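S1.2 Input.
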Amino acid sequence: MGSDTIPSHEPTLHPLDKIGSLVFPITTSCKMKFVIDETKDKMIHSLIKGGKNVMLTGATGAGKTTYCFEVANNLDMNCEVINCGSTQDARTSLLGFFQLKDGNTEFTPSNFIKAIQTENTLIVLDELSRASDDAFNILFPILDHRREISIEEENGDNRVVKVAKGVRFIATANIGLEYSSTRTLDRALQDRFMTFNLPYITGKQMVDYIGSSEELTPSDSLMLNTLSQVYDYSHNLFGKGKIGTRISTRSVIDTVSLIKDGFSVRDILDNAILSQYEQDSSTIVNDANVLREFADSIGVYTKSNSNNE
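S1.3 Output.
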């Protein structure tokens, strides 16, 4: 999802943008399109333009990070993604580091510091819920009315770095019991953002969207519908607390090329989609077996479900 460059895509949303609140990417002929609730989309763009900080919460694979590229592109802004999940050494990651140059020790500012000094830049604080407490403390003065950061390692005029004109901040966060490596966000930090939740859409909405963006044969469509039934079933069980995680929209979208290449639904489920459940946990492995039982009940394991068989 994350990247330092803005992907090429059409700025106009797909006509299906009113079918739900989820945002997710589809790549077709190197162009990305998104689905998002229209009102929510307009509010996010308005807040960013107005200089407010925005946080996108939601499940993994919903397209939060990729949507940030859409916002930057629509607002004609540069886009810099900061992976907060890798900021365990916060000062080095967010501020910079010392290095030898021509026999002298010099301080080299981080990409983050360079980005906040670059006008008209949308800074994506990706996976903010995985950042350390030290990272949170560094971000506080940048995200509030002060809009500056003091770098103790620097000297003179470089010691205090001010956020440049037109710099905006948008964060993504996975919040919930199924994300074991995430941290509870400090209330003071949350209050510095306007928060929008981007939930998953239904299997039918996903199938309709993929079908409008990809050239699928009748056999392809049948296989995609079968996968969407398993997708919906996982979400239904997750909502009832019967399994620990659900199949993400992204994981199904990513299998479209496998469908086109003739792999069976059985092979796609076992080797790609359900592989996320194959861990050293009896509970998680049992979740996979529950989904396989459902797949078996709709014929996945009793018929070919393949374009090549």
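S1.4 Remarks. Residues 267 and 295 are 12 Å apart (CA to CA).
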